[in-house]
User: Which sequence fits this backbone?
């Protein structure tokens, strides 16, 4: 019946895409931020990609401005990508430069395609979540501004993706990016005895992923500091453990080498290389400097089309830490202790 269910895909397709659906034969990048798709019909579809805020939050007036540009340049069609870029689809070739200039006037740089920094992305952080140990949107903004040239030009060995997560729940998918910024708590969750009375103790105990919460007499629990990994799981299940974290203890860890694609070496989970950096808003100099260092080392040593994780797998983690001048620990890289060194060297995902 009309009006029931999900609208058909065809109703959301730009006209040029609908005309050539299933007939695309190739694509290329005429310039950073512009993608050209060629159809067997002879038509070419030009897409212009621009950066958006890392968490894709914009004001109503900004969204109306973007909709106006879509009406003027792309027959009313645009889309927000998985990494929160905005793409205007079906822009006439002769009007591409005009659209780029209009976007630049509104501080929306065009780029993020091919061998460049793709749009940074992150979770909502403090905006909607009480678990965050840092402000991922602010950190990603500082990183984006630092790497503005890398976003607007094809100056990198391969694509570069940087993601941020406010805590180790990793909603921002930092572990799946070339470089991930992950918020971490270092203090034990507080236990409020009064609020604990309103929680189900079996649930509180079982929700801990490492079994750090144990019963302590009637109606009370305790946290083993040797087991606690400072995740916010307990504070989600019971208000007795919130608020979690502290301004002095919270910060971020940096992980590298993650990838979601199945190309090259295939998908991979990033590995921690810096266990802790402090929160120093608004520019987070320690974090941006660490990211700049990793990017510069990768650019100076990687082969063409070799993403960060693939480059590290080729040279080995030990050499990566040496080149990046970072202190190395077996526990830091892969959770192995000294007795598992031979296994670490033999593992197909951990090249030495």
Assistant:
């Amino acid at each position: 019946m009309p009006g029931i269910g999900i609208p058909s895909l065809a109703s959301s397709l730009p006209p040029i895409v609908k005309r050539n659906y299933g007939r695309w034969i190739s694509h290329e990048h005429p310039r950073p931020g512009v993608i050209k798709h060629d159809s067997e019909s002879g038509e070419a579809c030009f897409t212009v990609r621009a950066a958006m805020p890392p968490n894709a939050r914009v004001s109503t007036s900004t969204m109306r401005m973007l909709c106006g540009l879509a009406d003027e340049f792309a027959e009313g069609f645009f889309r927000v990508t998985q990494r929160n870029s905005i793409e205007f689809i079906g822009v006439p070739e002769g009007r591409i430069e005009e659209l780029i200039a209009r976007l630049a006037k509104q501080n929306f740089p065009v780029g993020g395609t091919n061998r460049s920094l793709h749009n940074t992305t992150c979770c909502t952080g403090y905006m909607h979540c009480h678990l965050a140990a840092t402000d991922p949107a602010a950190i990603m903004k500082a990183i984006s501004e630092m790497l503005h040239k890398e976003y607007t030009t094809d100056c990198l060995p391969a694509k570069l993706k940087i993601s941020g997560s406010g805590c180790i729940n990793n909603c921002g998918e930092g572990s799946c990016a070339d470089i991930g910024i992950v918020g971490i708590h270092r203090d034990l969750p507080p236990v409020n005895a009064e609020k604990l009375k309103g929680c189900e103790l079996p649930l509180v105990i079982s929700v801990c992923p490492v079994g750090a919460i144990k019963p302590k007499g009637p109606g009370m629990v305790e946290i083993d500091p040797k087991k606690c990994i400072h995740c916010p799981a307990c504070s989600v299940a019971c208000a007795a453990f919130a608020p979690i974290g502290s301004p002095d203890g919270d910060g971020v860890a940096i992980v590298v080498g993650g990838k979601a694609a199945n190309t090259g070496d295939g998908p991979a989970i990033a590995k921690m290389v810096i266990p802790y950096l402090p929160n120093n808003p608004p520019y987070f100099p320690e974090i941006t400097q660490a990211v700049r260092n990793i990017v510069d080392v990768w650019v100076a040593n990687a082969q063409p089309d070799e993403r960060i994780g693939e480059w590290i797998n080729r040279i080995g983690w030990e050499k990566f830490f040496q080149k990046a001048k970072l202190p190395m620990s077996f526990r830091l890289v892969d959770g192995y202790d000294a007795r598992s060194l031979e296994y670490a060297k033999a593992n197909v995902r951990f090249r030495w």
Q: What stands out?
A: The mean pLDDT is 89. The first helix runs from residue 15 to 19. Residues 301 and 311 are 8 Å apart (CA to CA).
